[in-house]
Amino acid sequence: MGLSAEQLREDLVALAAVEPAIAAAIGRVGYPEPRIRDRGVVTLLRTIVGQQVSYKAADAVWQRLEATLGDASDTAAWVAASDETLRAAGLSRQKMGYARSLAGLVQAGELDLSNLPADDEAAVAELVKVKGIGRWSAEIYLLFAEGRRDIWPAGDLAVQIEVGRIMDLPERPSEAATREIAEAWRPHRGAAAIFTWHHYRSDMGVI
Fold it and tell me: Is the overall model pTM greater than 0.85, yes or no?
């Protein structure tokens, strides 16, 4: 499971002690709510289904898939389902391939989501073996579903925008610059990432 409210607050208090800009930002927008997902294949399958579509559209497709497959966590059902069945539920041909790749690896025991490597980079490397799971999706899974406290998705646009705003930079930092800035925030970068999304929502007026 992801970082709890208590863990988030604990890590952000530690960050605020070493980074005055984060302390000031917390003072402006407060602490974020937890972002928690279930560990396992369903969360990654939902990630694939949700790529490049709205949350509402992805949820509708997922509900149809659950109704069709019976048990969306049954990897054998995904592998056995015909193109017609998955297409009728709303999956594109590309997403069918991604979902089957994931389900097949899990079914064959080549990807054990209950026993990913303890090293974060090694865990990312395992996840990106799956077609359709890139670095960002792997990092989000490790942060939200496993609660790994030093995951830093520096390729996320909102993270880059808010690091720029929080640190009062003249422009949005690149992914490389965002990674460099956060080196001083180890080992609490996961909480920093969740806080940047919270700060972004505040900027958008939706907290």
Answer: yes
